[in-house]
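Exercise 7. Given the components listed, write out the predicted structure of the assembled complex. Treat all entries as one system.
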Amino acid sequence: MLELKNISHYYRNQSRNTEISVFENFNLLIGEGEIVSLVGKSGCGKTTLVNIIAGYTEPTSGSVFMNGEKVVAPGKDRIVINQIHDLFDWMTVYQNMRLVSNDDNDINKYLSMTRLSEFADAYPYELSGGMKKRLSLARALVVDPKFIIMDEPFNSLDYQLREKFQEELLDIVRKSKKTILFVTHDIEEAVFLSDKVIILSGRPTQIKKEIVISFSKNKVDSIRDTEDFIFLKKKIKEEM
Ligand SMILES: Nc1ncnc2c1ncn2[C@@H]1O[C@H](COP(=O)(O)OP(=O)(O)OP(=O)(O)O)[C@@H](O)[C@H]1O
Ligand SMILES: [Mg+2]
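Answer.
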């Protein structure tokens, strides 16, 4: 279980002598095996929160607990897939995977799952944006973390690939019982993937509303066209 307790975070700009308060006494609980999406306007603090949970950023005050233990640094129990390019450019696709895993079978399994097997010897600059993202995902999965934090991971994918990835992610989660925190601007993606959608307000950011998504975890693509699904999308849009 992940617990954020009374998180406050400020950014100071020394030269302009200004301060922005992104969070004030923010609390959040994510249960094991849950898929939770965070949605909110650009600049409300989603990436800041991701960095705090990952252990990259120390909050101004408050604490993050992972299964009761305080988070003080990044750890292999929490893997982040970023908005930004996070591959090692001087290493091939295979070497990027090898850096985090010694298991060839696993490496090949995830390269195949993300349809990158043919590109094992290519360098990141030889891949498209979507392929790079798939490699980031493959690399996170091969580490087999309990908790995956994804910050708009599918933005560079085309529409069809994006839906395919959403389904694959659900499949992986179903098989391997992962806990996922998923940041997205895409309401449909949030409804499709999540057990719960958390809508954030503007700064200082608080939880505006939590919406429980009660479709079964065995989601199929056709669920997107159902009345319930469309209703939930509309409801979240209105709340934002
Ligand atoms: N390193 C930093 N120094 C100063 N201000 C920062 C820093 N990082 C973020 N901010 C500010 O904090 C606020 C929240 O930024 P953050 O990147 O967390 O937003 P976000 O919700 O992830 O936005 P987006 O949806 O556009 O990715 C913004 O106003 C931003 O300008
Ligand atoms: Mg962001």
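Discussion: The first strand starts at residue 2 and ends at 13. The pocket of magnesium ion (ligand 2) is lined by residues 46-47, 83, 151 (CB under 6 Å).
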